[in-house]
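Milestone M4 deliverable, item 7.
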Amino acid sequence: MHQHACPLRLDAGTRENARLRLLTVKGHVEGILRMLEDDTIYCVDVLKQTKAVAGALNKVGDLVLRSHLKDHVVTASERGDSDRIIEELMEVLKYR
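Output delivered:
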Protein backbone atom coordinates (compact mmCIF):
# COMPACT_ATOMS: atom_id res chain seq x y z
CA MET A 1 0.00 0.00 0.00
CA HIS A 2 1.18 3.48 -0.80
CA GLN A 3 1.40 6.05 1.93
CA HIS A 4 0.34 9.51 0.79
CA ALA A 5 -0.64 12.70 2.54
CA CYS A 6 -4.22 12.26 1.31
CA PRO A 7 -6.22 10.08 3.71
CA LEU A 8 -9.24 7.96 2.90
CA ARG A 9 -12.09 10.46 2.95
CA LEU A 10 -15.12 8.28 2.55
CA ASP A 11 -18.22 9.92 3.94
CA ALA A 12 -20.01 7.89 6.62
CA GLY A 13 -22.67 6.57 4.25
CA THR A 14 -20.18 5.48 1.59
CA ARG A 15 -17.91 3.91 4.20
CA GLU A 16 -20.83 1.93 5.70
CA ASN A 17 -22.06 0.90 2.24
CA ALA A 18 -18.58 -0.41 1.35
CA ARG A 19 -18.26 -2.18 4.72
CA LEU A 20 -21.61 -3.94 4.33
CA ARG A 21 -20.80 -4.99 0.77
CA LEU A 22 -17.47 -6.43 1.92
CA LEU A 23 -19.18 -8.36 4.70
CA THR A 24 -21.49 -9.82 2.06
CA VAL A 25 -18.45 -10.72 -0.06
CA LYS A 26 -16.87 -12.39 2.96
CA GLY A 27 -19.99 -14.50 3.43
CA HIS A 28 -20.08 -15.42 -0.25
CA VAL A 29 -16.41 -16.45 -0.24
CA GLU A 30 -16.97 -18.61 2.83
CA GLY A 31 -19.92 -20.18 1.02
CA ILE A 32 -17.80 -20.87 -2.06
CA LEU A 33 -15.17 -22.52 0.11
CA ARG A 34 -17.86 -24.79 1.57
CA MET A 35 -19.14 -25.55 -1.93
CA LEU A 36 -15.67 -26.67 -3.00
CA GLU A 37 -15.64 -29.22 -0.20
CA ASP A 38 -18.88 -30.80 -1.47
CA ASP A 39 -18.50 -33.17 -4.42
CA THR A 40 -22.22 -32.87 -5.22
CA ILE A 41 -22.05 -29.15 -6.07
CA TYR A 42 -22.37 -28.31 -9.76
CA CYS A 43 -19.48 -26.33 -11.28
CA VAL A 44 -21.81 -23.70 -12.74
CA ASP A 45 -23.14 -22.94 -9.26
CA VAL A 46 -19.59 -22.19 -8.10
CA LEU A 47 -19.03 -20.01 -11.15
CA LYS A 48 -22.21 -18.04 -10.43
CA GLN A 49 -21.08 -17.39 -6.87
CA THR A 50 -17.60 -16.28 -7.95
CA LYS A 51 -19.19 -13.87 -10.45
CA ALA A 52 -21.38 -12.49 -7.66
CA VAL A 53 -18.29 -11.89 -5.52
CA ALA A 54 -16.48 -10.20 -8.41
CA GLY A 55 -19.49 -7.95 -9.01
CA ALA A 56 -19.72 -6.98 -5.35
CA LEU A 57 -15.99 -6.20 -5.22
CA ASN A 58 -16.33 -4.05 -8.33
CA LYS A 59 -19.10 -2.09 -6.64
CA VAL A 60 -16.89 -1.45 -3.60
CA GLY A 61 -14.12 -0.35 -5.95
CA ASP A 62 -16.53 2.00 -7.69
CA LEU A 63 -17.53 3.55 -4.36
CA VAL A 64 -13.92 4.21 -3.40
CA LEU A 65 -13.03 5.45 -6.91
CA ARG A 66 -15.94 7.89 -6.91
CA SER A 67 -14.81 9.23 -3.54
CA HIS A 68 -11.21 9.52 -4.76
CA LEU A 69 -12.29 11.38 -7.88
CA LYS A 70 -14.40 13.79 -5.85
CA ASP A 71 -11.98 14.39 -2.98
CA HIS A 72 -8.55 14.08 -4.59
CA VAL A 73 -8.62 14.22 -8.41
CA VAL A 74 -10.85 17.28 -8.71
CA THR A 75 -8.54 19.24 -6.39
CA ALA A 76 -5.20 17.94 -7.75
CA SER A 77 -4.33 21.06 -9.75
CA GLU A 78 -4.92 23.24 -6.67
CA ARG A 79 -2.43 21.12 -4.72
CA GLY A 80 0.00 20.89 -7.63
CA ASP A 81 0.09 17.08 -7.72
CA SER A 82 -1.87 16.41 -10.92
CA ASP A 83 0.90 14.28 -12.45
CA ARG A 84 1.10 12.02 -9.39
CA ILE A 85 -2.68 11.65 -9.21
CA ILE A 86 -2.85 10.78 -12.93
CA GLU A 87 -0.11 8.16 -12.56
CA GLU A 88 -1.86 6.61 -9.56
CA LEU A 89 -5.14 6.36 -11.45
CA MET A 90 -3.47 4.88 -14.53
CA GLU A 91 -1.84 2.25 -12.31
CA VAL A 92 -5.15 1.35 -10.68
CA LEU A 93 -7.16 1.36 -13.90
CA LYS A 94 -4.89 -1.15 -15.60
CA TYR A 95 -6.29 -3.77 -13.19
CA ARG A 96 -9.93 -3.04 -14.06
